[in-house]
């Protein structure tokens, strides 16, 4: 087993470190940065459908649902198609309104999640075109869908999803840009820019992984916390949700992810000197607003751990701890900002003596309702 773990203590850590590779594999052969072009053979046949789609509905569970939220941000921003993201389990029991002009994208690492499969069957019955984003080749979901795009993350063993998530986000980025290309909502010049940056993401992820030693020290400080709050805005919001999910899954610390601006409508009541607040505070469109959220937390003596853009000084002066990540366009932020949060959960869980790869009560794939 040690051999399978490639020298890492746990599969989860190995999989976290595989991300520069798995992200690259998920875009390989699909992007042509110099020409500002993308090719997704699975979707080619459905170009007209995408062009005329009234709506895209994303269905998924767990971490895959978080990837869906990133997808919503990306598809609406670049392809200008309205997107709804649904928990598969809720969607299937809500008598949803679906038309033949709707596209459903089902996201699933395993391709075997029962609720996601049932949501697909329902949408199919009602005439929607169904695409899949799956990691396991030949699994059930790719067989149920009309077409799809595989993620190439390789087998994921750790129950808490890491590299499958970033691979899903990579593929959703490709889909957003692909539909933008078909619909002409983004110029070729802009696509050249975006794809060139996308191609550099694996290198930036590698840089983000270098914060590991610092993260070990921060984990030491946080490991006995009973609660943890994660805040983000824009594309940083799903990152906050995913950060919180990861922490609760493997360390059993109660954690919640929130859109930063919603803090004042509830979670702020919980903030005291015992409450760590992890904030995605990178230099994006909402930077200034997030800074004021940090000030609100500090005014109540909360412990602020901020994920910041390399070279940031403003947040550094306010936060208790800062973790730097390389600068990237807001579109790519989730691919990079997720990395330190995965490492933080991992180290906290290890320090608490938890079974990181097989957390209690959780299953890698939930094939029952
Ligand atoms: C389980 C796993 C999660 C996963 C979720 C959805 O809860 O523990 O890691 O995100 O199922 O699984 P899927 O295979 O459909 O992505």
TrEMBL record:
<feature type="domain" description="SIS">
    <location>
        <begin position="46"/>
        <end position="185"/>
    </location>
</feature>
<protein>
    <recommendedName>
        <fullName>Glutamine--fructose-6-phosphate aminotransferase [isomerizing]</fullName>
        <ecNumber>2.6.1.16</ecNumber>
    </recommendedName>
</protein>
<dbReference type="GO" id="GO:0004360">
    <property type="term" value="F:glutamine-fructose-6-phosphate transaminase (isomerizing) activity"/>
</dbReference>
<dbReference type="GO" id="GO:0097367">
    <property type="term" value="F:carbohydrate derivative binding"/>
</dbReference>
<keyword id="KW-0677">Repeat</keyword>
<dbReference type="GO" id="GO:0046349">
    <property type="term" value="P:amino sugar biosynthetic process"/>
</dbReference>
<dbReference type="GO" id="GO:0006487">
    <property type="term" value="P:protein N-linked glycosylation"/>
</dbReference>
<dbReference type="GO" id="GO:0005975">
    <property type="term" value="P:carbohydrate metabolic process"/>
</dbReference>
<dbReference type="GO" id="GO:0005829">
    <property type="term" value="C:cytosol"/>
</dbReference>
<comment type="subunit">
    <text>Homodimer.</text>
</comment>
<keyword id="KW-0963">Cytoplasm</keyword>
<comment type="function">
    <text>Catalyzes the first step in hexosamine metabolism, converting fructose-6P into glucosamine-6P using glutamine as a nitrogen source.</text>
</comment>
<feature type="active site" description="For Fru-6P isomerization activity">
    <location>
        <position position="364"/>
    </location>
</feature>
<dbReference type="GO" id="GO:0006002">
    <property type="term" value="P:fructose 6-phosphate metabolic process"/>
</dbReference>
<dbReference type="GO" id="GO:0006047">
    <property type="term" value="P:UDP-N-acetylglucosamine metabolic process"/>
</dbReference>
<keyword id="KW-0315">Glutamine amidotransferase</keyword>
<keyword id="KW-0032">Aminotransferase</keyword>
<feature type="domain" description="SIS">
    <location>
        <begin position="218"/>
        <end position="359"/>
    </location>
</feature>
<keyword id="KW-0808">Transferase</keyword>
């Amino acid at each position: 087993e040690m051999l399978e773990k490639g020298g890492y203590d746990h599969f989860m850590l190995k999989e976290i470190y595989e991300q520069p590779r798995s992200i690259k594999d998920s875009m390989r052969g699909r992007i042509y940065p110099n020409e500002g072009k993308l090719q997704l053979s699975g979707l080619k046949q459905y170009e007209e459908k995408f062009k005329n789609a009234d709506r895209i509905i994303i269905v998924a569970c767990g971490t895959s649902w978080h990837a869906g939220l990133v997808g919503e941000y990306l598809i609406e921003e670049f392809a200008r198609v309205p997107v709804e993201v649904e928990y598969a389990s809720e969607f299937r029991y809500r008598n949803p309104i679906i038309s033949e002009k709707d596209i459903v994208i089902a996201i699933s690492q395993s391709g075997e999640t029962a609720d996601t499969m049932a949501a697909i069957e329902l949408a199919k019955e009602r005439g929607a075109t169904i695409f899949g984003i799956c990691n396991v080749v030949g699994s059930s979901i790719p067989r149920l869908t009309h077409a799809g795009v595989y993620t190439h993350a390789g087998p994921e063993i750790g129950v808490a999803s890491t590299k499958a998530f970033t691979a899903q986000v990579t593929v959703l980025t490709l889909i957003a840009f692909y539909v933008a290309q078909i619909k002409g909502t983004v110029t070729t010049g802009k696509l050249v820019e975006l794809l060139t940056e996308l191609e550099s993401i694996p290198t930036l992820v590698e840089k983000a992984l270098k914060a590991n030693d610092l993260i070990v020290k921060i984990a030491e400080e946080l490991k006995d916390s009973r609660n943890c709050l994660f805040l983000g805005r824009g594309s940083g919001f799903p990152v906050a949700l995913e950060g919180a999910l990861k922490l609760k899954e493997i360390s059993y610390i109660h954690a919640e992810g929130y859109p930063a601006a919603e803090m004042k409508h509830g979670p702020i009541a919980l903030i005291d000197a015992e409450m760590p607040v992890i904030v995605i505070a990178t230099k994006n469109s909402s930077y200034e607003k997030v800074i004021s959220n940090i000030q609100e937390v500090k005014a109540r003596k909360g412990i602020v751990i901020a994920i910041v853009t390399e070279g940031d000084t403003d947040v550094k002066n306010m936060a208790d701890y800062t973790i730097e990540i390389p600068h990237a366009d807001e579109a790519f932020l989730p691919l990079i900002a997720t990395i330190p949060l995965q490492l933080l959960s991992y180290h906290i869980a290890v320090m608490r003596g938890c079974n990181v790869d097989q957390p209690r009560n959780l299953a890698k794939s939930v094939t029952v309702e």
